[in-house]
Amino acid sequence: MKKIRLMIALLGTGFLVLQFLGPDKPASVPAPNLSGIPEEVNAIIRNSCFDCHSSQTTLQWYDKLSPANLLVYDHIQKGRKALDFSKWDSLAPAAQSGILFYSLNKILENEMPLPSYTTVHPTKKISDGDIQVLKNFLVARTLSRPAANKARPQLTGSAGSQDAPSRLPVRPAPNGIEYLPDYRNWKVISITDRFDNGTMRIIYGNEVAVKAIRECKTNPWPDGSIFAKAAWKQQTNADGSITAGDFVQVEFMIKDAQKYASTAGWGWARWLGTGLKPYGEKAVFTTECVSCHSPRKDNDYVFTTPFTFKN
Fold it and tell me: Whole-structure pTM over 0.85, yes or no?
């Protein structure tokens, strides 16, 4: 009995000592609501995302106890580094939309909020109703932005046809990257859709990228890896099926850690429509690309999860 009491006393003393030796609590500064976002959407994001993805963190008493706070504070630091909603107003509209779409995808994949977080913070869970609110908002946000649609030329190509006149001269991107017409002969590494802007995409990878996928060496991707993401408008047919409609654009990511060190190690380029008009007026357009992909910094700035290839 004395041994048990002694053990309890030692454990209690050790626990108390830990409270004075724990890590520094992350700073918490009030963060405003996201501008241009409806109140009901802001409420969901603030409740379920702000604790780890903004400058404002509300900690429960048990979050502050050592050694649990080691894990909690680490999550907060990594979360802010990956995505900080406090910097919302500094982002371009395209980057804001990309972050919202990325966040919703993480929610749909049950990756966010972290299951370990919602287990001890059940009020932070995102319900099916919340998800529907987010979906409806993203769809409405896209439809209510005619300026974004107007920026694209009238398109006529389709996925099943010669979607881009590659035999015609194509001007390089403003940063000097040349158009790569042979991307259609590369291996398809993923297929995605963006319900928020009504497009479907096919992502192609060159031989270097495919080799990296086979060898599971994709974070970081090796120099020489190139992705081509071709997008078409979704076309809803009379029978309810969805097929590729007008060709929208093709964009490239070219990995060269040294050459493109100033743009996160990637060369970025995009051509719009069947006329293959280079996107952007000046080379600085790449800052928009990096900003949009910044939530995936820990994944070498790549959104795409490639197919698994067997040798």
Answer: no
Q: How is residue 301 written in tokens?
A: 């700035």
**Closest among 158, 160, 180 to 170, alpha carbons compared:** 180
- Count of C-beta atoms within a 10 Å radius of residue 277: 14
End-to-end C-alpha distance for the chain, whole angstroms: 63
- Do 84 and 54 meet the contact criterion of CB atoms below 8 Å apart? yes
Q: Enter the CATH code of domain 152-299.
A: 3.50.70
The SS3 of residue 181 is: helix
Reading the block at residue 34, the tokens are 């996201």
**Edge-to-edge strands, sheet with 242-255:** 187-194, 199-205, 226-236, 242-255, 266-272, 277-278
Question: Which residue, among 210, 195, 289, has the nearest Cα to 242 in the 3D structure?
Answer: 195
The residue length of the chain stands at 311
In whole angstroms, give the CA distance from residue 219 to residue 91. 26
List 243's β-bridge partners, or say none: 235
187: three-class secondary structure by DSSP = strand
- Would you tell me the crossing angle of helices 128-143 and 93-108 to the nearest 10 degrees? 150
Rounded Cα distance, 126 and 133, in Å = 11
Q: Which residues is 272 bridged to in the sheet?
A: 249, 277
Sequence ranges of the domains in the chain: 13-143, 152-299
Distance CA(38)–CA(90), nearest Å, equals 19
Nearest to 260 by CA among 224, 219, 217: 224
Rounded to whole angstroms, how far apart are CA atoms 133 and 118? 20
Residue 231 Cα to chain centre, angstroms = 17
The one-letter amino acid code at 224 reads G
Condensed to tens digits (0 to 9), the pLDDT of residues 166-214 reads 467 899 999 999 999 999 999 999 988 776 677 889 999 999 999 999 9
C-alpha 219/C-alpha 222 separation (Å) is 8
Residue 250 predicted with pLDDT over 60:
yes
Euclidean distance between CA atoms 192 and 234, whole angstroms: 12
